[in-house]
Amino acid sequence: MSRGALIVVEGLDKSGKTTQIKNCLQILRRDGFDVCQLSFPDRTTSIGQLISSFLRGETVLDDRVVHLLFSANRWEKWKEIKERLMAGTTILVDRYAYSGVAYTASKGYDWDWCLGPDKGLIAPDLVIYLSASSKVLETRSGYGQERYENQLFQNRVSETFEKLVTHKWLRISSDRPIEEVTHHMIPPIRNIIDSCQNGALPLG
Ligand code: T5A
Ligand code: NA
């Protein structure tokens, strides 16, 4: 039985991750691929609700507590992710451990400490980084409603993301029409699904 691919989409707030994953799912399903979506934070769990309330500014929590909650929120999906991949389903994930490091390290916390809690999570087969300047993103609808959505902090997060980007990441500019971004995402996603199905990539 061939496994599915774990594909992560990262980027600053309002870079279009949710929009792009929705479009990609639609196209891939139309073409017969077995694909599903997960998002982090997953606000539906009790841990996710704590995070959501913090992001909306309704709860005050120590930054380190929040960091650990974000990580716990991924760990509570670990088993489900593994089972779905093994069953052959490809998962498109809206943010993952990279966001965890990028946002907390941008507040000045120790890099290794930030990495620690997520160690052992399943490694993605592909990370797509949707890049755009914080100036562009600021104009997108809904911007500014949650805690980290201000240019000063987003610029710092952007610099921290740059430290996480490796040659294996695919950087796609999201400062262009939605359909154009989708058009650039589909071929590499198809390639990685193929590689996983023919066993070229072991589960990380
Ligand atoms: N966080 C997250 C941490 O601190 N640690 C962690 O471990 C994790 C996982 C919430 C916050 O939590 C932080 C990061 C975040 O600050 P979230 O729920 O993913 O994380 O919040 P956002 O990133 O803000 O997610 P959004 O859903 O709000 O933004 P998206 O998904 O990037 O953007 P999207 O697709 O909703 O688009 C936003 C708007 O822009 C338009 C869309 O139509 C929409 O109106 N748009 C475009 N407009 C023009 N051109 C394009 N190409 C466009 N693409 C989208
Ligand atoms: Na946000």
UniProtKB/TrEMBL annotation:
Pathway: Pyrimidine metabolism; dTTP biosynthesis
Entry's EC annotation: 2.7.4.9
Key words of the record: ATP-binding, Kinase, Nucleotide biosynthesis, Nucleotide-binding, Transferase
InterPro entries tied to this protein: P-loop_NTPase, Thymidylate_kin-like_dom, Thymidylate_kinase
Domain Thymidylate kinase-like: 9-182
One BP annotation, GO: dTTP biosynthetic process
CDD domains (alphabetical): TMPK
SUPFAM superfamilies assigned to the protein according to its UniProt record, in alphabetical order: P-loop containing nucleoside triphosphate hydrolases (SSF52540)
Major enzyme class: transferase
A Pfam family per the record: Thymidylate_kin
GO molecular function: ATP binding; dTMP kinase activity; nucleoside diphosphate kinase activity
Organism superkingdom: Eukaryota
GO cellular component: cytosol; mitochondrion; nucleus
Family: Belongs to the thymidylate kinase family.
HAMAP family documented for this protein: Thymidylate_kinase
Protein name: Thymidylate kinase
Taxonomic source organism: Galdieria yellowstonensis
Source taxonomy: Eukaryota, Rhodophyta, Bangiophyceae, Galdieriales, Galdieriaceae
